[in-house]
Design goal:
mainly alpha, about 425 residues, single chain, two-stranded antiparallel ribbon
């Protein structure tokens, strides 16, 4: 069932209110730029893709296209100025926490808005990233968010396939054989092997497959398939569903639950990897696995907060907006995600705080008192990630549905333009 037009209009109004709060939280930066802190009470400007300014710019570009309102483009240009100024001040080179993410957003501003200074700053950032490679890695982390896999994805989308291959080749010699395939340590000195997209094997798989396909490196693609095979072998919800533990043995069991359902460590993110492997290989088995992820997500109980610690986050990384991204993919590709997407949007609407400043969302920390956290601005836990998915939901319900966003998120495969029916694994 599709939402009524007036309901979609209300979602768009919520997105506008979310943008108003977000732009109102911007800070003046040196040189006439704009920047954001992780949350309004912070003093330190945050340039990162994960929780800072680089993660805000994509939703500004989406809003510019969505509303045909140049004020959002002007704000994005001012934000790009502050990002350009930050390039030489990073200690981190990664996609989500460092220079590579900033470079990717600057390159997008160059391409979308014709800003030559943003392009020059992106070039400078990638030069510095390359210069800091030690031959195997860039730091302690060795996965998508903070390590080689994310750097490879970002470099590819920035137009530097040589750097992308340089970042991905070390996985060939560091892969650890398992009974079903391969896996990798996500950081130095840790016994646990993580399995999902944000810090685990599937994030590496996604990067290997995407870079391997783009550069004709079949060895990278074959390694991706071996990494995916290991994760698939760990499923505990088949044959209809798909659910894999966070890690083996459990990483930080005093803090981390063994199973979750969102983008970061659950089937909502696993499905994104399987969607990419579907498109890269043409094998219907990956469609079946993505369908099984969807089956598990939609029957998990989310977005209800079933117990303390279950579904306490509205955001794109660990919460409702990340699941909404997958639901919108289902609408675009298979026309079967409407009801669940509407449920998620209704939950986000209910949980929004709205007043004269706009709309924003608070997450919950059940182990703290008070448990209601200050609203955040960025992609991971805050307004930027939530508003991006609300706008996409609205576009998918227009007279001419538009499944894509202005900015291609590195680990979110674009919706396919043709229908992929379900299939059964052999």
């Amino acid at each position: 069932m599709t939402p009524a037009p007036e309901a979609v209009d209300e979602v768009e109004e919520l997105a506008v209110d979310g943008l108003r709060w977000l732009t109102g939280a911007a800070r003046e930066a040196p040189g006439g730029g704009l920047a954001w802190t992780t949350k309004p009470s912070d003093d330190r400007l945050n340039p990162t893709l994960y929780t800072g300014t680089a993660g805000v710019v994509p939703v500004l570009l989406d809003a510019w296209r969505h509303f045909d309102d140049d004020s959002y483009a002007d704000t994005a240009l001012r934000a790009a100025r502050s990002l350009a100024d930050s390039v030489d001040r990073f200690d981190d080179d990664s996609l989500y926490f460092g220079r590579t993410g900033v470079a990717l957003v600057l390159r997008t501003v160059q391409e979308e808005l014709g800003d030559a200074a943003a392009g020059a700053a992106a070039d400078r950032a990638l030069y510095l990233v390359r210069s800091r490679f030690d031959g195997t890695r860039w730091g302690e982390l060795f996965e998508l968010m903070g390590g080689n896999a994310g750097i490879g994805l970002g470099a590819l989308l920035c137009g530097d396939p040589e750097l992308a291959v340089l970042a991905l080749e070390p996985y060939l010699r560091t892969a650890e054989r398992t009974p079903a395939g391969v896996n990798w340590p996500h950081r130095t000195g840790v016994e646990a092997r993580l399995h999902h997209i944000s810090h685990g094997a599937l994030g590496i798989v996604l990067a290997l497959a995407r870079v391997g396909e783009a550069t004709g490196r079949t060895d990278l693609l074959e390694l991706a398939l071996a990494g995916a095979a290991d994760v698939v072998s760990r499923d505990q919800a088949g044959p209809e569903g798909f659910l894999v533990r966070h890690s083996t043995p459990q990483y930080r069991p005093e803090l981390v639950e063994p199973f979750s359902y969102g983008w970061c460590h659950g089937p909502a993110g696993d499905a994104q990897v399987f969607r990419l492997l579907r498109d890269v290989t043409g094998d219907p088995a990956w469609t079946a696995l993505a369908d099984r992820c969807w089956h598990t997500v939609t029957r998990s109980g989310l977005p209800r907060r079933l117990r303390p610690g279950f579904w306490d986050n509205n955001g794109r990384c660990c919460g409702t907006a990340g699941v909404l991204a997958l639901a919108c993919d289902r609408i675009a590709e298979q026309q079967d995600g409407y009801d669940f997407a509407r449920l998620l949007v209704t939950d986000l609407t209910t949980r929004a705080t709205r007043d004269g400043d706009g709309a924003r969302w608070s997450n919950i920390e059940h182990r703290a008192t008070p448990g209601t956290l200050e609203p955040c601005t960025g992609w991971a836990m805050g307004n930027a990630g939530i508003v991006r998915e609300l706008l996409r939901f609205v576009r998918l319900h227009g007279d001419k549905p538009t499944p894509h966003s202005t900015f291609t998120w590195p680990d979110h495969p674009p919706a396919s333009t043709h229908h992929h029916g379900g299939a059964q694994l052999p």
